[in-house]
Amino acid sequence: SQQGEEDPQALSIQEGENATMNCSYKTSINNLQWYRQNSGRGLVHLILIRSNEREKHSGRLRVTLDTSKKSSSLLITASRAADTASYFCATVHSGNTPLVFGKGTRLSVIA
Amino acid sequence: DTAVSQTPKYLVTQMGNDKSIKCEQNLGHDTMYWYKQDSKKFLKIMFSYNNKELIINETVPNRFSPKSPDKAHLNLHINSLELGDSAVYFCASSLGLGETQYFGPGTRLLVL
Questions:
Q1: Which among B43, B98, B103 is the nearest to A92, CB-wise?
Q2: CA–CA separation, A101 and A89 (whole Å)
Q3: Per-residue pLDDT tens for A46-105?
Q4: Which residues of B touch A (CB under 8 A)?
Q5: Residue A68, CB half-sphere, CA atoms under 13 Å: how many?
Q6: Scanning every residue of chain B, which has its alpha carbon at the shortest distance from the alpha carbon of A42?
Q7: Exposed (0-12), middle (13-18) or buried (19+): which is B39, by Cβ within 10 Å?
Q8: pLDDT (tens digit per residue) in A35-63
Q9: Which residues does chain B have within 8 Å of residue A40's beta carbon, measured at their own beta carbons?
Q10: pLDDT at B8 over 60
Q11: Rounded to 10 degrees, what is the CA torsion of B21, B26, B28, B30?
């Protein structure tokens, strides 16, 4: 299966702390994307990182990609209660295949 | 203005019925998708259309039939609904296959 695997499955932190989520995959990718899903809502795109990139930032979000280890991490700094959501990584493999989503990490940020 | 919209938002129906879900995007994208998200939040692609042509058809029962009347619309018709079809169905669109996707709000289908 090409499906990415997020780790941990669930994460609970205090407001103000940093949250780190990891994603591992099995076969070569063209790009890797992170999405957020608030309860009862659709997915929202956060960051796309291409296979030739190692790090990208967007506001309080930092994504790293290590193609040698076939893994990526999403760091949310200074977390807020509003960051409470499920976070999914999705991979696009060679040949521009459709996105393959992992099972997600459920993040709870406690005020 | 909603970029990707779906109707209806909720759908409760009896087993054996036929139902349709509609999706529209106003982003000018070429590629549209249907996903199914089960109770464990696992998101699985069902179909993808590019410029009104079917390009991806995952292992989905043939009771599910997508239809794209134009580039901005991708509808999903489901025949003979079964209990296992209960899930949230998401429509999405992107400029091209493998690019950033924009999701609709989802249609929560409950088959009784």
A1: B98
A2: 6
A3: 999 999 999 999 999 999 999 999 999 999 999 999 999 999 999 998 766 778 888 899
A4: 4, 33, 40-45, 48, 56, 90, 92, 96-106
A5: 1
A6: B105
A7: exposed
A8: 999 998 999 999 999 999 999 999 999 99
A9: 106
A10: yes
A11: -10
Type and span of the H or E element at A44: strand A43-50
In the block, tokens 């493999």 appear at: A93
Name all contacts of A11-16 with Cβ < 8 Å and 24+ positions apart.
A11/A105, A11/A106, A11/A107, A11/A108, A12/A107, A12/A108, A12/A110, A13/A79, A13/A107, A13/A108, A13/A109, A13/A110, A14/A109, A14/A110, A15/A79, A15/A80, A15/A81, A15/A109, A15/A110, A15/A111, A16/A78, A16/A79
Evaluate the CA torsion angle A66, A31, B89, A107 in order and state its sign. Answer: positive
Please state whether A54 falls in left (phi above 0), alpha (psi between -120 and 50) or beta: alpha
Q: How many CB atoms lie within 10 A of CB B108?
A: 16
Q: What gap in Å lies between CA B17 and CA B71, rounded to an integer?
A: 28
Tokens matching residue B20:
């349709």
